[in-house]
User: What shape does this take?
Amino acid sequence: MKNFTQILCICLVITGNIFGQQEKGIIGADNWLNNWTEFNPKFVDYGEPTQILAGNITEDTKLLKRYRYLLSGNVFVTDSTTLTIEPGTVIMGDYASKGSLTISKGAKIVADGLETDPIVFTSNRSVKRAGDWGGLILLGDAPITKFGSGSVASYYAQLNASIYANSNYGGQNPASNSGILRYVRIEYAGKRIKNAGYFNGLLLASVGHETVLENIMVSHCAGNSFEILGGEVNLNKVVSYKSNGNDFMFNFGAQSNLTNALAVRSPYISNRSGARCLLVNSYNNKEEVDFTKKGTMLVAKNLTLLTDSDDITSDIKQGLVKEAVYVGHLASLNMNKSVISGFNPAVLLENKIRVNQENLEKIQFSDMYFNNCNGNIFVENNMNNEDLENWYGNSAFFNVYANSNNSETFIDAKNRKRPDYRLRINKIIASNEVDPDLKRLDD
Assistant: This one.
């Protein structure tokens, strides 16, 4: 009887550990990336456009799957109009005219694709590259910490009174509804604009929590894949794949939830200033924000952030890999049940953040899986992270550490057609002790 009890206890411990590992990173009984995602879009022939979209859309309009549409120049959906897009529809951004689509404040987009028939925004070039066209912009009237109303007018090459009027965002309605984006792919966006930087794959400015945003993939973007400015945004089952810019960026008082999300970075693809999987800021310049309003607050759960590398140690030594997560001054982040694999280091806090209990309670990491990183959590420009390791390494946070390559860590990361980035449970040997071999290479 005693032996049976011991065996039962061992089995319960093993089972508990397995389930504890399974719930970290992206989760699902099945691989939810199947069917609707595309990890090799350069090999997909979408055909030639048959319809042109240009100027302002001022009446309720429906785009049909049987046509292929070309975004010519800056296209705006305005005047409380709804743009509906059928599942399976392909919309191409024009390279020559820097095509883009903006859903202005008060208007809506209903792009409700299907798992087996996603809606695709892509480049119209035969040989596609990051930054071929602009991107998709949703503007709402949810709160933002910027003084006055915000504007994205600088993104547009041609400016006139109409563009200024349709490019504003911000208000007092946290439930602002900009429509639905579900089972949508955005490929090769991020056109560079002189004196304004890059378009983003998907820009959400003052978008409210009534907007549905799930199963969205942004791939090969020259700017940020997802940029959220203010508002109350909930993102679920979203993917950023090999972006030049940041994968997920939150700023200016965004009150957001990011759940069951994936970011895959390449060491050989990044803009000159460097980029991260997750960037959480409260401001760019102090003079432009109202600090009486809520600062940026992100709850991030079940994220998988990884670098696609066959030799992560070499890539780090060459300076090709940055930190996965960057948290700015006055921003709050609650990150849990997530995987960070192959970064330099895993997390970096802005040097303005003082390491004390008040600040660390605003920046939480629990039930994390830190794998194969050149160090874990540091303050910018400070190599001594003993206080941080003692804090986040406390057993109460249930963080674990490992040192395995991607093929051992994930179920099928090398499958270029149908990769599976869920954790490979039976291969993982993890510890809640910080591995001494994971000290930074530049110590």
